[in-house]
Design brief:
Helix content is about 55%, strand content about 0%. It has helices at about 1-65, 70-95.
Length: about 160
């Protein structure tokens, strides 16, 4: 019986040692990944700051160029208007569901029938099974042109005969 107690002690020591090695390995890997991500984030931040200064210098150059033939206030106003238009266009390009058409049939401006209020639907439900939401009928039930549909029965509409 002493022999088995000795083996249990060895097993416990081995498990503790393996757990310690695993923790150190994971910690080292996370530290390395964090270091790389921190460097990448720093480079992106520096790039953004330089792009901001480059944009300011370009806006100043446009303003000074316009000021050669216009009063200073008019040149500044035109430059500001150009920047506002560019910001509006870029914002529209950044939105995936940007409205390119002037008007919409829906009172709240939504044209996509699969649009979910408050955001977009997940591509796959958290469970990974089936559709995330039940399908939306093209016309509301009871509306003109809609026919009742019983799940599991796909049948064509009966022809209408005029007497």
């Amino acid at each position: 019986m002493e022999r088995l107690d000795h083996l249990e002690h060895l097993d416990k020591d081995l498990v503790d040692e393996l757990a310690q090695v695993a923790r150190e390995t994971v910690r080292d890997e996370l530290r390395e990944q964090t270091r790389k991500q921190r460097r990448t984030a720093t480079l992106y931040a520096a790039s953004g700051a330089l792009a901001l200064y480059a944009g300011a210098a370009l806006a100043l150059a446009i303003g000074l160029g316009l000021a050669a033939g216009l009063p200073g206030w008019a040149a500044a106003l035109i430059t500001a208007a150009l920047l506002a238009v560019m910001a509006f266009v870029l914002r529209g390009m950044a939105r995936p569901s940007a409205q390119t058409h002037g008007h919409s049939a829906h009172p709240h401006g939504h044209t996509d029938p699969d649009r979910v209020a408050g955001g977009s639907a997940p591509a796959v439900p958290p469970s990974g099974l089936g559709m995330p939401y039940p399908p939306v009928p093209p016309v509301p039930p009871g509306a003109p042109g809609s026919t009742p549909h019983i799940p599991g029965t796909d049948y064509p509409e009966a022809p209408h005969h005029r007497a």
